[in-house]
Amino acid sequence: MNSPALAPYHVLYVDDEEKALHYFRQMFEDEFVIHTANNAAEGFRILESYGTQIGLLLTDQRMPGESGVELMDRARRLHPNLVRILVTAFTDYQTAVKAVNEGRAYRYLHKPLDPEQLATVLRQGMEYYHTLQEREGLLTQNAEHIRTTLMADRVAGMGIMAEGLNHHLRNALTVVRAFIDLAPMKLMEEIDARPPRDPNFWVETQHQAQAQIERIQTLLNHLAHASHARKLSRNDTVHLPMLLENILGTYLGHFQEKNIRVEFDISPALPPLLVHEERFRQLWRLLFIEEITHLHPGDRVVVRARMEKDATGQEQAVMILTDNGGWGAQDRAANLFDPFFTRSRKPDDFGVNMMACYVTLHLHGGSIEAKRLEPQGLELTMRLPLDPTQSTQEADDFFLRATQHEQRWQKREELAA
């Protein structure tokens, strides 16, 4: 047997006739990588195992168990780009026409199969699948480029705002702080002159004003962290379990004071991570501050981390933070990364914290997604490619929807009508 070399993708043929499978393999194994199955259930298991490596499914209609059309329906949901060809007897003509018209089949063929016609259909179908995959890749790349550009614009806008706030607010704060620092001395002068009617007013006012000044300065610092648009250099090696334990130690008293449980579940297989250590530590500090701020006594935080490979085989660290805190009825998880959204509605809750986390992951070549849990709670999924030169390939929902294969099927059918 010669080694298959012409087609980069595989062919799966499903038929309950063993002779048909045998002859099919003999005819095409020199041109394609061939998989065969004698029922729909086994065929679907092969599709699940090989995924997008299989570009073309050829299936008989009448088989014990699931029919060919039923198999194609399931295959379409599993892998929309898969080219699906239905093999029918003449008595199944209406079934075949319906399958094609509804977009479940790319073509249909009559038994007995003509070898030359079958070879032509397989080559055309494989070429079509290759084109779809190339287009999918280009759309994904463009979507990622647009997402990156939009994010860079957003970060740059945050930078402009941060610079303006720093310039105007810090100057004003300097004057306010000077007044507050002088207030105790002026109070003592007043006490020496005559007993003041309400000395506590001076003390309490000073404390409140100082607290607000510190809050504004903290906000400005966090905003500055969220406004760096330049991609970070990932030259520092950190061990995630050690880093998390270290940062937790800093805030342990706050968690204990609110009786919030914090648990770590870090896979031993997770290697050391190459990061920008200062910003990566700040990311986790902000996440812990976020949890302390909005969780209630008795709530729980769990941080899990493991290794994964994406669809392209790229290795990445997947870090998942979950809690069981409450949400407002009208709030969406996507709001979490809005710089002015606060989940807890508390005065010390800075919406820009999560925006800073979003930017930090983005500038590491990673991504962060938020998801509401039922009946309540939050799940944050952070993905970080192990290779510092790579980026994750997640794109915004808009661009993902734009690349859905079913829309292309519908458009193709409209043009053919």
UniProtKB/TrEMBL annotation:
<dbReference type="InterPro" id="IPR005467">
    <property type="entry name" value="His_kinase_dom"/>
</dbReference>
<protein>
    <recommendedName>
        <fullName>Response regulator receiver domain-containing protein</fullName>
    </recommendedName>
</protein>
<feature type="domain" description="Response regulatory">
    <location>
        <begin position="10"/>
        <end position="126"/>
    </location>
</feature>
<dbReference type="InterPro" id="IPR011006">
    <property type="entry name" value="CheY-like_superfamily"/>
</dbReference>
<dbReference type="InterPro" id="IPR036890">
    <property type="entry name" value="HATPase_C_sf"/>
</dbReference>
<feature type="domain" description="Histidine kinase">
    <location>
        <begin position="164"/>
        <end position="388"/>
    </location>
</feature>
<feature type="modified residue" description="4-aspartylphosphate">
    <location>
        <position position="60"/>
    </location>
</feature>
<dbReference type="InterPro" id="IPR050595">
    <property type="entry name" value="Bact_response_regulator"/>
</dbReference>
<dbReference type="InterPro" id="IPR001789">
    <property type="entry name" value="Sig_transdc_resp-reg_receiver"/>
</dbReference>
<dbReference type="Pfam" id="PF00072">
    <property type="entry name" value="Response_reg"/>
</dbReference>
<keyword id="KW-0597">Phosphoprotein</keyword>
